[in-house]
Amino acid sequence: MTKQVSLSSALHAGMATLYCVCLAYAAGLLHTLPLWPFTLASGQHPIESVLLAMLLGMLLRQSGWVTATWQPHLGLITKCALYTAIVMLGARLNWHAVWSLPHATLLVIVLVVGITVPLVLWLARCCRCNGALSWQLAVGTAICGTAAIAAVTPLLASSEEDVAISISAINLLGTVAIFVFPLLGHLFGMVGSHYAVWVRL
Question: Cα torsion for 164, 30, 73, 144, to the nearest 10°?
């Protein structure tokens, strides 16, 4: 009986893992699909693969494809994926490139982050978001989106719902910005390096 339970658990774990891999692969294909709105005339891909993966996951769950027996395994896979993403993010950092930036650029970055984090925290509290979700939205907005959220999630002991909401919100806003920023730049007459600095910030 114990062997049957172990075999069944291993089977469900394998199916959950395969489901996650296929979902991530499908989201990656959609992200680079040579059709509007996935690919613009400029060659940009405005809809992030993370957002697509979450939308696909929500759709499949609502359609009944995800069984209750997969839930514990999906939770474990999510945690492992987050920790792996954090390690890979750290491996990509090039501190020499960071410190070689002009002092004025570093100062502007520090100021923008220092202003954005408390501002978003205040807005999140006004919207009655809980503490963990407020911090995830703040660091996701101020620093580098999904990667920043993944980095702080273990520290905040966030729920799956908080992670899903924060990542969805940040990626959705990023997608909207790709279409809105060029219009705002043209409206305010920003060109060249001025527009580039504004967009990067």
Answer: -40
